[in-house]
């Protein structure tokens, strides 16, 4: 349990750090330095392998960190929306937990909302 809590904090911190302007500047500087070092290493296969391996490994690890953070954020947003639906007297409680519905159920609900919007936009005399 402690490992999961640590990972969650680390994933959040990593996502914040990777999305910062500083991270972009550091990554850009690393690419520029790598490109400038090409003549010194005679544009060798090893020189090319350094950037390819580094970016591949970082991308691979970043996918898991970012996905974890997105899952957690999405779950929090869903819970907040569920709370708003539950607390509204006019809202239909069947809208709570829509993320667990089938694609067909979601499509039917989407069509219902489109019909409602059209009905509200249609002037009474046109009906």
Number of domains: 2
Helical percentage: over 70%
Largest sheet: none
CA-based shape: elongated
Low-confidence stretches: none
Radius of gyration: 25 Å
- SSE string: HHHH
The tally of strands reads: 0
Strand content: under 5%
Q: What's the average pLDDT? A: 90
How far the N terminus sits from the C terminus, by CA atoms, comes to: 60 Å
Q: Which secondary-structure class do the elements indicate?
A: mainly alpha
Helix run count: 4
Question: Mind sketching the topology for me?
Answer:
Blueprint: H1 2-18, H2 21-36, H3 45-87, H4 103-121
Could you explain how this protein is built, in words?
With 127 residues, this protein is mainly alpha-helical. It contains four helices and no strands. The model has no long low-confidence stretch (mean pLDDT 90).
Summarize it.
With 127 residues, the protein is an all-alpha fold. It has 4 helices and no strands.
């Amino acid at each position: 349990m402690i490992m999961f809590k640590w990972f969650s904090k680390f994933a959040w911190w990593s996502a914040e750090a990777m999305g910062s302007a500083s991270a972009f500047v550091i990554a850009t500087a690393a690419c520029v330095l790598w490109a400038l070092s090409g003549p010194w290493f005679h544009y060798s296969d090893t020189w090319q392998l350094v950037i390819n391996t580094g970016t591949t490994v970082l991308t691979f690890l970043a996918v898991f960190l970012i996905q974890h953070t997105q899952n957690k954020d999405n779950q929090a947003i869903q819970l907040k929306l569920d709370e708003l639906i539950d607390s509204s007297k006019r809202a239909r409680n069947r809208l709570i937990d829509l993320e667990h519905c089938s694609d067909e159920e979601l499509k039917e609900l989407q069509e219902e909302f489109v019909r409602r919007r059209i009905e509200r936009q249609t002037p009474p005399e046109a009906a």
